[in-house]
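Quick one before lunch.
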Amino acid sequence: MIGDTERSIPAVTAAPGYAEFLESYCDKEQPLLIKGLAKSWPAREKWISKGLRSDLHSLPSVRDRGVFFVSRSPVLEQDIEMPEFLKEVLSSDRIMKDSVAWRFWVNSRNNRTEFHYDTNAENVITVQVKGRKEWVLVSPDTPLPCYPFTNFSLLKDEE
Ligand SMILES: O=C(O)CCC(=O)C(=O)O
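Model of the 2-oxoglutaric acid complex:
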């Protein structure tokens, strides 16, 4: 809990349509939790930590950035069932502009990622394929002791 400003994030069990996503969430900068989005993805069975790491290492477009793997083009699409609204999000430059990057965070139990700004990605869409993760989202106006990606982009050398 962060002071008295804690708010919960609205949760739905079915993906919204693209227009609803834009109007009700994206345009209002309102985070949204879609429960069970990946529950029927082949990735849930296929992505075992060690094998996934070596699969990612074998793909030419993927770079191992230490804390995550990144690719500027889609990879492992056969393991993913992309919801319609997300296909539209990814094919439009309205939401992601030119910062679309696929990142794979392959972490072990009890991993903790420190607070950071993702200034190179105006919006972040994250799918928790396996396991659990607690997220703490903080207003950009709130000063935090964190490593700020304010002056540079981790993805710059991929362009
Ligand atoms: O999965 C994590 O530990 C961090 C993910 C994250 O920071 C991001 O997607 O920008």
